[in-house]
Amino acid sequence: MPRHVRAMRSYRRARAVALVLVGVVALGGGFVGFTVLRWRSNVTTLPSVASLVAPPSTPPGAPPVVGRSVDADDPMPGSALNLLLLATDDRSGENAALAGADPGGGSDTALIAHISADRSRVELVSLPRDSRAQIPACHLDREPDGPMSQPRTAKFNAAFATGWATGDPALAALCTISTVQTMTGLTIHGYAIVDMVGFVGMVDAVGGVRVCVPEPLRDTRYTGLDLSAGWHDLQGVPALQYVRARHVDGGDGTDPARIERQHRFLGALVRKVLSSEVLSSPLAMGRFLDAATSSLMVSEELADPGTMLGLAWSLRGLDATDLTFMTVPWAYADGGRYVAWTSDADEVWARLLADMPLAGGAPGGNPSAVGTPAAGGADGGPAGGAAGDGTAGDGTAGDGTGGAPPVGGAVLRTAEDPEAALCG
């Protein structure tokens, strides 16, 4: 293969991986100028994390993170990166046409994206919105000495709502980051927010995502989702319904129950973007780039197109098998009103702090410390910790409702699809 063709494909893969990570959105390939132009003109820049969020204290004895030398344009060469990716259920403007008008707003989905120091893998950890959270005092305006909210214990998505109530999405993200750093000890280096319009645009731009539904999925309470068992090619509103539905018939109505479904869909989207069908098509990649950036809000750390291209190039060797999804190990608490993180969650944060893979041996030498079932709910209820995503070789996804119950901290890579066989 001619060298310029290999280089073009590397650029395409690099930028695709980077934007998929930034809000499960993606950077493209042989169109360097087009990408920079779209990134600069389409995204909305929000304040940096450092402007209003203090870094967490380093745990005693925490090992240094050392990685191989990476591209000089990488924003943090040789260091691990943690990004917070947020999807909102904002229902104003164009979003109202998708899910109905509502004056409120919050974080419907929150994931920590850990990019390893050697840029060889990415782990995405979902934080259930119903998690019992210690929300610290948060800024209510952009002045360092301005008014602050009161610290409190509440559901995790209340952190986003605290800032959102000010009318400033940046304050919503920064309050969420303060909460994440307080609860995990991780340092968040940047953030991105995508709304429902942006999500639908990305899915439609790649021609939809194929999902396996082992059992019928119906939600007559909120989203209107109604899918028969079998394979479905989802675009537009049905795709949004699929990832948002909580109150499906036969389900428990909780957020962790739908997170596995979200992981499978997002994994399939990643696989589709990295497939030759999209990656090798300038037209398809251009549509995806436009959709991915037009509804995206990113922190100042990620707003510079040169920085993003540098990070993208350092990730050029990644493919779908190098992305891992999981949900923080959890158990029901207070009669199911809250989700409580179990002690296994500490092992997850220890691994990320040490820049160790979530699948494999533990920092303390116990290879089964992560990935084992939680002992049970804090009040005697069932344990959880929904597994991550899997995609089949053709970019399809399996749904999480037809298999075994989720187990605490289960980890799956995006190349795996244990349920695709259930749809034939």
From TrEMBL:
Q: Which interval of the chain is the signal sequence?
A: none
Q: Which residues form the Cell envelope-related transcriptional attenuator domain?
A: 107-274
Q: Where does the record place the region Disordered? A: 364-424
Q: Where is the composition biased (Gly residues)?
A: 377-406
Q: Which domain of life is it from?
A: Bacteria
Which InterPro entries does the UniProt entry name for this protein? Answer: LytR/CpsA/Psr_CW_biosynth, LytR_CpsA_psr
Query: In which family does this protein belong, per the annotation?
Result: Belongs to the LytR/CpsA/Psr (LCP) family.
Name by which UniProt lists this protein: Cell envelope-related transcriptional attenuator domain-containing protein
